[in-house]
Write a structure and sequence with these properties.
The chain is an alpha/beta fold. The chain contains 14 helices and 22 strands. Helix 1 runs parallel beside helix 4 and helix 1 packs parallel to helix 9. The longest helix has 26 residues. The chain binds flavin-adenine dinucleotide. Its cofactor is (R)-lipoate; FAD.
Length: about 475
């Protein structure tokens, strides 16, 4: 009987993992509450992550286009300038609309919202604001936070995390970005477009590690063309503050070559770490892995029965849509259904200009796994729509099994790739061969024809190349 507990499910954290889990639980008829310590719902993603970053990326992209691309299209605009305050207001209104949207969805679905910080007392028992609440199942969806570097303090004014970088009230003269991952290149792009000099220091020899090598080297080349300065294979050893300026000592990753950069803002973007402190996990014995993430089984249950974990706080790609998939699946397991989440089919996107998107395996991984594959590639410079838009940089690359032509990975860099990757994900989810895409009629003239042509190219049958 439900009366034994206050709730069937209690979710800790209202990010994309937690709020989606709560709504799905309500849909399935469970009595559900969601505890969130922030004043607003939506977690990192809606408040200080995906949504505000895309608002600033879009606005800054329009500015960049007005300054450098409109003229080529015969559109004359004079005296283009930035009103940063207004741009920040736009960002804030987008965030507000989104977080209020979740509040509306909670009400609509009768999810009880509890404001406060939750601690788990025991299986089935959570304490919030000194009050004990019982629930048959507890879902930990506490997400992640910015990871730092030892000896470097983040003050959110000059040395900022992504949160501070989204809220700057002045355009920096020189921003040094530590870490050339997705967040580093996206937020670096915002400030570069708005006029800052931007230098990215990355420990590895490439940007966006994890993406296909050919894509990341193309991205690096295009960012350099936009004026980015890249210090690949370098690490930051220390940062000193002098008369309001930051002096950033960097050296070659393998030691040797040292230099000092001067900047007014440093963005720390070396990665994110799971949020588990304060939850009381050690007391009740919930196991963590070697990277501090909560260990779960294939049904998202921790080693303590009745306690589940999803999203950034467990293993797998730290992405909002992955957290959502986890959230739905965890609830469906609890409800006795048989959901399935395939982490190999979680798309990854970098919202730079041009955009980067991928799904499945990279060439490097296929080589390591000794898989025989063919490559089909098609450049946007041969696509009519891309030419019409004046956005011909980049290409689509499809990796297919050499014997069966089954799609193993799709990698793209170019205009609107964040939207175009959905076709590839869908195809792979259905176990399609590249030929299945090639045999599918694509509207002309669209950018997505480049996907069809790349699919044809896996069997050397591209028409327009
Ligand atoms: P979170 O969104 O981190 O939510 C966890 C919530 O739990 C937080 O609101 C926190 O306050 C709350 N909480 C923590 N502890 C407690 C407690 N004890 N009691 C109560 N509440 C608690 N991902 C994408 O897919 N696409 C993007 O474009 C993208 N852009 C990003 C840009 C930036 C700048 C950043 C920082 C991240 C970005 N991400 C993006 C990553 C994305 O934000 C995360 O993967 C996603 O938010 C993870 O969801 P989650 O539900 O696991 O956790």
């Amino acid at each position: 009987p439900a009366s034994e507990y206050d709730y069937d499910v209690l979710v800790i954290g209202a990010g994309p993992g937690g709020y989606v889990a709560a709504i799905r639980a309500a849909q399935l008829g469970m009595k559900v509450a969601c505890v969130e310590k922030r004043k607003t719902l939506g977690g990192t993603c809606l408040n200080v992550g995906c949504i505000p970053s895309k608002a600033l990326l879009y606005a800054s992209e329009q500015y960049e286009a007005a300054r450098h691309q409109f003229e080529k299209l015969g559109v004359v605009v004079k005296n283009v300038s930035v009103d940063l305050k207004k741009m920040q207001e736009h960002k804030q209104s987008v965030v507000e609309a989104n977080v209020n949207g979740i509040e509306f969805l909670f009400k609509k679905n009768k999810v009880t919202r509890i404001e406060g910080e939750a601690t788990i007392v025991a299986a089935g028992k959570v304490s919030v604001n000194g009050q004990e609440i019982s629930a048959r199942s507890i879902i930990i969806a506490t997400g992640s936070e910015t990871a730092g570097l030892p000896g470097i303090e983040i003050d959110e004014k000059q040395v900022v995390s992504s949160t501070g970088a989204l809220a700057l009230s002045e355009i920096p003269r020189h921003m040094v970005v530590i870490g050339g991952g997705v967040i580093g290149v996206e937020l670096g792009s915002v400030w570069k477009r708005l006029g800052a000099r931007v230098t990215v220091v990355e420990y590895f020899d490439r940007l966006v590690p994890g993406f296909d090598q050919e894509i990341s080297s193309t991205l690096a080349r295009l960012l350099i063309k936009q004026g980015f300065e890249l210090k690949l294979s370098h690490k930051v050893s220390k940062i000193d503050k002098m008369n309001g300026q930051l002096k950033i000592a960097i050296e070659a990753a393998q030691g040797g070559n040292q230099e000092t950069l001067e900047a007014d803002v440093v963005l720390m973007a070396v990665g994110r770490r799971p949020v588990t402190a304060g939850l009381g996990l050690d007391k009740i014995g919930v196991e963590l892995d070697e990277r501090g993430r909560i260990k779960t089984d294939a049904q998202f249950q921790t080693n303590i029965p009745g306690i589940y974990a999803i999203g950034d706080v467990i293993a797998g790609p730290m992405l909002a849509h992955k957290a959502e998939e986890d959230g739905v699946a965890a609830i469906e397991f609890i409800a006795g259904k048989k959901p399935h989440v395939d982490y190999n089919l979680v798309p990854g996107v970098v919202y730079t200009e041009p955009e980067v998107a991928m799904v499945g395996k990279t060439e490097e991984v296929l080589k390591k796994e000794n898989v025989a594959y063919t490559v089909g590639k098609f450049p946007f410079s041969a696509n009519g729509r891309a030419r019409a838009m004046g956005k011909t940089d980049g290409f689509v690359k499809i990796l297919a099994d050499k014997h069966t032509n089954r799609i193993l990975g799709v990698h793209m860099i170019g205009p609107n790739c964040s939207e175009m990757i959905a076709e590839a994900v869908l195809a792979m989810a259905f176990g399609a061969s590249a030929e299945d895409i090639a045999l599918t009629c694509h509207a002309h003239p669209t950018l997505s024809e480049a996907v069809k042509e790349a699919a044809l190219a896996t069997q050397n049958q591209a028409i327009h190349m």
